[in-house]
Design brief:
This protein is of the alpha+beta class and 409 residues long. The chain is 48% helix and 11% strand. The longest helix is centred in the middle third of the chain and has 22 residues.
Protein backbone atom coordinates (compact mmCIF):
# COMPACT_ATOMS: atom_id res chain seq x y z
CA UNK A 1 0.00 0.00 0.00
CA UNK A 2 1.42 3.38 -1.09
CA UNK A 3 1.43 6.11 1.54
CA UNK A 4 1.07 9.72 0.36
CA UNK A 5 4.11 11.95 0.77
CA UNK A 6 2.74 14.91 2.73
CA UNK A 7 6.03 16.78 3.05
CA UNK A 8 5.40 18.92 0.00
CA UNK A 9 6.85 22.25 -1.09
CA UNK A 10 5.32 25.07 -3.16
CA UNK A 11 7.36 27.22 -5.52
CA UNK A 12 6.00 30.71 -4.88
CA UNK A 13 6.98 33.70 -7.08
CA UNK A 14 7.05 36.00 -4.03
CA UNK A 15 8.93 33.98 -1.37
CA UNK A 16 10.53 31.13 -3.29
CA UNK A 17 10.07 27.66 -1.80
CA UNK A 18 7.33 27.28 0.84
CA UNK A 19 7.26 24.11 2.94
CA UNK A 20 4.15 22.51 4.43
CA UNK A 21 5.07 22.20 8.13
CA UNK A 22 3.11 19.06 9.07
CA UNK A 23 0.65 16.43 7.88
CA UNK A 24 -2.41 18.10 9.47
CA UNK A 25 -1.82 21.28 7.47
CA UNK A 26 -1.23 19.18 4.34
CA UNK A 27 -4.62 17.48 4.88
CA UNK A 28 -6.32 20.86 5.40
CA UNK A 29 -4.80 22.21 2.18
CA UNK A 30 -5.95 19.07 0.34
CA UNK A 31 -9.52 19.44 1.62
CA UNK A 32 -12.11 20.44 -1.05
CA UNK A 33 -13.11 23.49 1.06
CA UNK A 34 -9.56 24.84 0.77
CA UNK A 35 -8.93 23.71 -2.82
CA UNK A 36 -11.95 25.85 -3.81
CA UNK A 37 -9.76 28.91 -3.13
CA UNK A 38 -7.82 28.06 -6.31
CA UNK A 39 -10.99 29.18 -8.14
CA UNK A 40 -11.58 32.40 -6.19
CA UNK A 41 -9.74 35.49 -7.48
CA UNK A 42 -7.79 37.50 -4.92
CA UNK A 43 -8.43 40.91 -6.48
CA UNK A 44 -11.96 40.45 -7.80
CA UNK A 45 -12.49 42.34 -11.07
CA UNK A 46 -9.13 44.15 -10.93
CA UNK A 47 -7.85 42.05 -13.85
CA UNK A 48 -9.95 44.37 -16.07
CA UNK A 49 -7.49 47.12 -15.09
CA UNK A 50 -4.33 45.11 -14.41
CA UNK A 51 -4.25 42.09 -16.78
CA UNK A 52 -1.78 40.20 -14.56
CA UNK A 53 -4.03 40.27 -11.49
CA UNK A 54 -5.35 36.74 -11.94
CA UNK A 55 -3.85 35.28 -8.74
CA UNK A 56 -6.12 33.51 -6.29
CA UNK A 57 -7.08 33.29 -2.62
CA UNK A 58 -5.19 29.98 -2.59
CA UNK A 59 -1.93 31.80 -3.44
CA UNK A 60 -2.59 34.33 -0.70
CA UNK A 61 -3.49 31.82 2.03
CA UNK A 62 -0.34 29.75 1.41
CA UNK A 63 1.76 32.95 1.45
CA UNK A 64 0.22 34.03 4.76
CA UNK A 65 1.03 30.65 6.30
CA UNK A 66 4.63 30.99 5.12
CA UNK A 67 5.23 34.41 6.65
CA UNK A 68 3.50 33.28 9.85
CA UNK A 69 6.15 30.53 10.04
CA UNK A 70 8.81 33.25 9.72
CA UNK A 71 7.15 35.37 12.43
CA UNK A 72 7.02 32.41 14.84
CA UNK A 73 10.72 31.66 14.19
CA UNK A 74 11.68 35.31 14.80
CA UNK A 75 9.70 35.62 18.05
CA UNK A 76 11.07 32.34 19.38
CA UNK A 77 14.61 33.51 18.55
CA UNK A 78 13.93 36.62 20.66
CA UNK A 79 12.90 34.52 23.65
CA UNK A 80 9.12 34.52 23.24
CA UNK A 81 7.76 31.14 24.32
CA UNK A 82 5.42 29.63 21.71
CA UNK A 83 4.57 25.95 22.13
CA UNK A 84 4.18 23.56 19.18
CA UNK A 85 0.41 23.47 19.70
CA UNK A 86 0.24 27.28 19.76
CA UNK A 87 2.40 27.54 16.62
CA UNK A 88 0.16 25.04 14.87
CA UNK A 89 -2.93 27.00 15.98
CA UNK A 90 -1.47 30.21 14.51
CA UNK A 91 -0.58 28.51 11.21
CA UNK A 92 -4.04 26.94 10.84
CA UNK A 93 -5.85 30.17 11.78
CA UNK A 94 -3.97 32.24 9.18
CA UNK A 95 -4.20 29.48 6.54
CA UNK A 96 -8.00 29.38 6.87
CA UNK A 97 -8.67 33.07 7.53
CA UNK A 98 -10.08 33.67 4.01
CA UNK A 99 -11.70 30.27 3.40
CA UNK A 100 -15.17 31.86 3.58
CA UNK A 101 -14.70 34.18 0.59
CA UNK A 102 -17.30 33.83 -2.12
CA UNK A 103 -16.82 34.23 -5.89
CA UNK A 104 -14.94 37.37 -6.90
CA UNK A 105 -14.24 38.00 -3.22
CA UNK A 106 -16.70 40.65 -2.00
CA UNK A 107 -19.42 40.64 -4.69
CA UNK A 108 -21.42 37.84 -3.00
CA UNK A 109 -21.56 39.63 0.36
CA UNK A 110 -23.60 42.46 -1.13
CA UNK A 111 -25.96 40.60 -3.42
CA UNK A 112 -27.19 37.01 -3.21
CA UNK A 113 -26.49 36.37 0.47
CA UNK A 114 -28.03 38.82 2.92
CA UNK A 115 -25.23 40.83 4.56
CA UNK A 116 -23.16 37.79 5.51
CA UNK A 117 -19.49 38.73 6.00
CA UNK A 118 -16.83 36.36 4.66
CA UNK A 119 -15.17 36.12 8.11
CA UNK A 120 -18.39 34.69 9.54
CA UNK A 121 -18.45 32.04 6.80
CA UNK A 122 -14.73 31.33 7.38
CA UNK A 123 -15.57 30.54 11.00
CA UNK A 124 -18.39 28.20 9.92
CA UNK A 125 -15.96 26.35 7.64
CA UNK A 126 -13.44 26.10 10.50
CA UNK A 127 -16.06 24.60 12.83
CA UNK A 128 -17.09 22.09 10.14
CA UNK A 129 -13.44 21.11 9.57
CA UNK A 130 -12.90 20.87 13.33
CA UNK A 131 -15.63 18.21 13.55
CA UNK A 132 -14.10 16.34 10.59
CA UNK A 133 -10.57 16.54 12.06
CA UNK A 134 -11.72 15.47 15.54
CA UNK A 135 -11.14 18.74 17.41
CA UNK A 136 -7.63 19.47 16.10
CA UNK A 137 -8.66 22.99 15.04
CA UNK A 138 -10.06 24.07 18.42
CA UNK A 139 -7.07 26.23 19.38
CA UNK A 140 -6.92 27.80 15.91
CA UNK A 141 -10.60 28.77 16.20
CA UNK A 142 -9.99 30.28 19.64
CA UNK A 143 -7.09 32.36 18.23
CA UNK A 144 -9.10 33.38 15.12
CA UNK A 145 -11.95 34.66 17.32
CA UNK A 146 -9.56 36.60 19.57
CA UNK A 147 -10.52 34.50 22.60
CA UNK A 148 -7.07 33.08 23.35
CA UNK A 149 -5.43 34.62 26.44
CA UNK A 150 -2.25 35.62 24.56
CA UNK A 151 -3.43 38.76 22.75
CA UNK A 152 -0.49 39.03 20.35
CA UNK A 153 -1.63 35.78 18.68
CA UNK A 154 -4.78 37.56 17.50
CA UNK A 155 -2.69 40.57 16.41
CA UNK A 156 -0.66 38.30 14.13
CA UNK A 157 -3.93 37.12 12.52
CA UNK A 158 -5.94 40.35 12.47
CA UNK A 159 -4.51 43.80 13.18
CA UNK A 160 -3.13 46.79 11.31
CA UNK A 161 0.17 44.98 10.82
CA UNK A 162 -0.89 41.33 10.47
CA UNK A 163 0.32 38.53 8.21
CA UNK A 164 -2.76 38.92 6.01
CA UNK A 165 -1.95 42.54 5.08
CA UNK A 166 1.75 41.82 4.72
CA UNK A 167 1.10 39.12 2.15
CA UNK A 168 -1.67 40.73 0.14
CA UNK A 169 0.18 44.03 -0.28
CA UNK A 170 3.32 42.32 -1.53
CA UNK A 171 1.45 39.75 -3.64
CA UNK A 172 -1.11 42.13 -5.17
CA UNK A 173 1.67 44.60 -5.96
CA UNK A 174 3.62 41.84 -7.73
CA UNK A 175 0.75 40.49 -9.83
CA UNK A 176 -0.83 43.85 -10.68
CA UNK A 177 2.49 45.54 -11.42
CA UNK A 178 1.69 48.43 -9.05
CA UNK A 179 5.23 48.81 -7.71
CA UNK A 180 4.22 51.38 -5.09
CA UNK A 181 2.55 48.61 -3.06
CA UNK A 182 5.71 46.55 -2.61
CA UNK A 183 6.78 46.25 1.03
CA UNK A 184 9.73 44.67 2.84
CA UNK A 185 7.87 41.98 4.78
CA UNK A 186 11.14 40.27 5.80
CA UNK A 187 12.35 43.43 7.53
CA UNK A 188 8.98 43.99 9.24
CA UNK A 189 8.94 40.43 10.60
CA UNK A 190 12.56 40.67 11.80
CA UNK A 191 11.63 43.83 13.75
CA UNK A 192 8.70 42.17 15.57
CA UNK A 193 8.76 41.47 19.29
CA UNK A 194 6.35 40.92 22.15
CA UNK A 195 6.03 43.03 25.29
CA UNK A 196 3.34 42.39 27.93
CA UNK A 197 1.69 39.93 25.51
CA UNK A 198 1.29 42.77 22.95
CA UNK A 199 2.87 42.73 19.48
CA UNK A 200 5.41 45.54 19.09
CA UNK A 201 7.88 46.72 16.45
CA UNK A 202 11.39 47.58 17.56
CA UNK A 203 12.31 51.25 17.13
CA UNK A 204 14.81 50.61 14.33
CA UNK A 205 11.96 49.14 12.24
CA UNK A 206 9.92 52.35 12.23
CA UNK A 207 10.86 53.30 8.67
CA UNK A 208 9.68 49.93 7.40
CA UNK A 209 6.33 50.52 9.14
CA UNK A 210 6.10 53.97 7.55
CA UNK A 211 6.76 52.44 4.13
CA UNK A 212 4.12 49.76 4.83
CA UNK A 213 1.46 52.38 5.65
CA UNK A 214 2.27 54.53 2.62
CA UNK A 215 2.22 51.41 0.39
CA UNK A 216 -1.18 50.44 1.79
CA UNK A 217 -2.62 53.88 1.03
CA UNK A 218 -1.25 53.87 -2.51
CA UNK A 219 -2.44 50.32 -3.22
CA UNK A 220 -5.97 51.25 -2.18
CA UNK A 221 -6.19 54.25 -4.52
CA UNK A 222 -4.27 52.66 -7.38
CA UNK A 223 -5.63 49.10 -7.24
CA UNK A 224 -8.39 48.16 -4.77
CA UNK A 225 -10.28 51.47 -5.18
CA UNK A 226 -9.23 52.11 -8.78
CA UNK A 227 -12.34 53.60 -10.37
CA UNK A 228 -12.56 50.95 -13.10
CA UNK A 229 -12.22 48.11 -10.56
CA UNK A 230 -14.89 49.78 -8.41
CA UNK A 231 -17.43 50.18 -11.23
CA UNK A 232 -16.80 46.61 -12.48
CA UNK A 233 -17.43 45.15 -9.01
CA UNK A 234 -20.60 47.25 -8.61
CA UNK A 235 -21.87 46.03 -12.00
CA UNK A 236 -21.16 42.43 -10.94
CA UNK A 237 -23.12 42.99 -7.71
CA UNK A 238 -26.02 44.49 -9.69
CA UNK A 239 -26.01 41.52 -12.11
CA UNK A 240 -26.48 39.12 -9.19
CA UNK A 241 -29.18 41.33 -7.64
CA UNK A 242 -31.05 41.50 -10.96
CA UNK A 243 -30.76 37.73 -11.40
CA UNK A 244 -32.20 37.22 -7.93
CA UNK A 245 -35.00 39.68 -8.66
CA UNK A 246 -35.96 37.85 -11.87
CA UNK A 247 -35.76 34.46 -10.15
CA UNK A 248 -38.14 35.76 -7.46
CA UNK A 249 -40.63 36.45 -10.30
CA UNK A 250 -40.35 32.76 -11.35
CA UNK A 251 -38.25 33.59 -14.41
CA UNK A 252 -35.90 30.64 -14.95
CA UNK A 253 -32.27 31.64 -15.51
CA UNK A 254 -29.65 29.20 -16.71
CA UNK A 255 -27.06 28.71 -13.95
CA UNK A 256 -25.16 26.03 -12.03
CA UNK A 257 -26.95 24.17 -9.22
CA UNK A 258 -25.17 25.97 -6.34
CA UNK A 259 -25.72 29.42 -7.88
CA UNK A 260 -29.34 28.55 -8.63
CA UNK A 261 -29.83 27.64 -4.96
CA UNK A 262 -28.67 31.07 -3.77
CA UNK A 263 -30.73 32.84 -6.44
CA UNK A 264 -33.89 30.99 -5.37
CA UNK A 265 -33.43 31.22 -1.61
CA UNK A 266 -33.08 34.15 0.77
CA UNK A 267 -29.99 33.25 2.80
CA UNK A 268 -29.08 35.02 6.05
CA UNK A 269 -26.29 34.04 8.42
CA UNK A 270 -28.78 32.12 10.58
CA UNK A 271 -29.68 29.98 7.53
CA UNK A 272 -26.15 28.62 7.15
CA UNK A 273 -26.69 25.02 8.23
CA UNK A 274 -24.52 22.11 7.03
CA UNK A 275 -26.40 21.80 3.71
CA UNK A 276 -26.17 25.54 2.90
CA UNK A 277 -22.46 25.59 3.81
CA UNK A 278 -21.76 22.64 1.50
CA UNK A 279 -23.70 24.38 -1.29
CA UNK A 280 -21.71 27.57 -0.72
CA UNK A 281 -18.50 25.51 -0.85
CA UNK A 282 -19.38 24.51 -4.43
CA UNK A 283 -19.58 28.14 -5.58
CA UNK A 284 -16.60 29.79 -7.26
CA UNK A 285 -15.72 32.34 -9.97
CA UNK A 286 -16.46 29.77 -12.71
CA UNK A 287 -20.17 29.61 -11.71
CA UNK A 288 -20.50 33.38 -11.93
CA UNK A 289 -18.64 33.90 -15.23
CA UNK A 290 -20.44 30.97 -16.85
CA UNK A 291 -23.79 32.46 -15.82
CA UNK A 292 -22.83 35.94 -17.06
CA UNK A 293 -21.82 34.49 -20.45
CA UNK A 294 -25.30 32.92 -20.74
CA UNK A 295 -27.24 35.84 -19.31
CA UNK A 296 -25.81 38.37 -21.81
CA UNK A 297 -28.32 36.88 -24.29
CA UNK A 298 -31.27 36.99 -21.88
CA UNK A 299 -34.50 38.70 -22.93
CA UNK A 300 -34.38 40.99 -19.89
CA UNK A 301 -32.73 44.21 -21.08
CA UNK A 302 -31.25 45.10 -17.68
CA UNK A 303 -29.61 41.72 -17.06
CA UNK A 304 -28.40 41.38 -20.64
CA UNK A 305 -26.91 44.90 -20.82
CA UNK A 306 -25.08 44.57 -17.48
CA UNK A 307 -23.62 41.16 -18.44
CA UNK A 308 -22.37 42.48 -21.79
CA UNK A 309 -20.56 45.27 -19.94
CA UNK A 310 -18.48 42.72 -18.00
CA UNK A 311 -17.93 40.28 -20.90
CA UNK A 312 -16.84 43.00 -23.34
CA UNK A 313 -15.23 45.31 -20.76
CA UNK A 314 -17.49 48.12 -21.90
CA UNK A 315 -18.30 49.45 -18.47
CA UNK A 316 -20.32 52.36 -17.14
CA UNK A 317 -18.61 55.74 -17.00
CA UNK A 318 -17.52 56.61 -13.46
CA UNK A 319 -16.72 60.18 -12.45
CA UNK A 320 -14.98 60.86 -9.13
CA UNK A 321 -15.28 64.05 -7.12
CA UNK A 322 -14.32 65.51 -3.75
CA UNK A 323 -17.88 66.83 -3.41
CA UNK A 324 -21.21 65.02 -3.07
CA UNK A 325 -22.92 64.42 -6.44
CA UNK A 326 -25.49 66.94 -7.66
CA UNK A 327 -28.96 65.39 -7.28
CA UNK A 328 -30.36 67.39 -10.19
CA UNK A 329 -27.62 66.14 -12.54
CA UNK A 330 -28.22 62.55 -11.40
CA UNK A 331 -31.95 62.89 -12.11
CA UNK A 332 -31.24 64.45 -15.51
CA UNK A 333 -29.03 61.48 -16.45
CA UNK A 334 -31.77 59.07 -15.36
CA UNK A 335 -34.37 60.90 -17.44
CA UNK A 336 -32.07 60.87 -20.48
CA UNK A 337 -31.48 57.12 -20.15
CA UNK A 338 -35.23 56.45 -19.82
CA UNK A 339 -35.80 58.30 -23.09
CA UNK A 340 -33.28 56.01 -24.83
CA UNK A 341 -34.51 52.70 -23.38
CA UNK A 342 -38.10 51.66 -22.60
CA UNK A 343 -37.49 50.25 -19.11
CA UNK A 344 -39.34 50.77 -15.84
CA UNK A 345 -38.36 53.92 -13.96
CA UNK A 346 -37.18 51.93 -10.94
CA UNK A 347 -34.79 49.90 -13.14
CA UNK A 348 -32.83 52.97 -14.19
CA UNK A 349 -31.00 52.72 -10.83
CA UNK A 350 -29.12 49.75 -12.30
CA UNK A 351 -27.45 52.11 -14.77
CA UNK A 352 -27.34 55.55 -13.14
CA UNK A 353 -26.32 55.76 -9.48
CA UNK A 354 -24.01 57.43 -6.97
CA UNK A 355 -21.72 56.18 -4.21
CA UNK A 356 -18.68 56.97 -2.13
CA UNK A 357 -15.27 55.46 -1.38
CA UNK A 358 -13.39 55.73 1.89
CA UNK A 359 -9.69 55.10 2.43
CA UNK A 360 -7.92 55.22 5.79
CA UNK A 361 -4.42 53.77 5.72
CA UNK A 362 -4.08 53.81 9.50
CA UNK A 363 -6.67 54.00 12.27
CA UNK A 364 -5.03 54.73 15.63
CA UNK A 365 -8.27 53.84 17.44
CA UNK A 366 -8.35 50.34 15.96
CA UNK A 367 -5.52 48.51 17.69
CA UNK A 368 -2.54 50.80 17.07
CA UNK A 369 0.85 49.74 15.69
CA UNK A 370 3.11 50.00 18.73
CA UNK A 371 6.78 50.97 18.57
CA UNK A 372 8.97 49.82 21.49
CA UNK A 373 11.87 52.15 22.28
CA UNK A 374 15.25 51.25 23.73
CA UNK A 375 14.06 52.24 27.23
CA UNK A 376 11.16 49.70 26.81
CA UNK A 377 8.55 52.47 26.60
CA UNK A 378 5.84 52.00 23.96
CA UNK A 379 4.53 54.64 21.58
CA UNK A 380 1.98 54.70 18.78
CA UNK A 381 3.78 54.77 15.41
CA UNK A 382 2.17 58.16 14.64
CA UNK A 383 3.73 59.71 17.75
CA UNK A 384 7.05 57.88 17.38
CA UNK A 385 7.55 58.88 13.74
CA UNK A 386 9.29 62.08 12.67
CA UNK A 387 7.30 62.07 9.43
CA UNK A 388 4.41 64.52 9.47
CA UNK A 389 2.68 62.77 6.55
CA UNK A 390 1.90 59.76 8.79
CA UNK A 391 -0.60 61.89 10.73
CA UNK A 392 -2.33 62.60 7.43
CA UNK A 393 -2.53 58.85 6.72
CA UNK A 394 -4.61 58.38 9.86
CA UNK A 395 -7.33 60.72 8.56
CA UNK A 396 -10.07 59.06 6.50
CA UNK A 397 -10.31 60.31 2.91
CA UNK A 398 -13.72 60.16 1.24
CA UNK A 399 -14.31 60.45 -2.50
CA UNK A 400 -17.73 60.54 -4.16
CA UNK A 401 -18.67 59.15 -7.55
CA UNK A 402 -21.50 58.87 -10.04
CA UNK A 403 -21.88 56.11 -12.64
CA UNK A 404 -23.85 56.30 -15.89
CA UNK A 405 -23.75 54.79 -19.41
CA UNK A 406 -21.19 56.35 -21.73
CA UNK A 407 -23.88 57.03 -24.31
CA UNK A 408 -25.09 59.85 -22.03
CA UNK A 409 -21.79 61.75 -22.25
Amino acid sequence: MNSTNKLKIFNDPIYGFITIPNTLIYDLIQHPYFQRLRRISQMGMSYLVYPGAHHTRFHHAIGCMHIMQKAIETLRFKGVTISEDEANGLLIAILLHDIGHGPFSHAMENSIVENVHHEEISLLFMHALNVEFEGKLSLAIQIFKGEYHRHFFYQLISSQLDMDRMDYLKRDSFYSGVAEGNINSDRLIQMMNVQNEQLVIEEKGIYSVEKFLVARRLMYWQAYLHKTSVVAEIILTKILKRAKELTDKDIQLESSKPLNYFLKNKVNFSDFNEKVLDTFAQLDDVDIMSAIKNWQFNEDFVLSALCKMIINRDLLKIQMSEDKPDKERLQLLKDQFLQLHPIEAKDVDYFVFKGKLKNQAYNKNSGPISIVKKDKSIEDVIEASDQLHLKALSKPVTKYFICFPKVLL
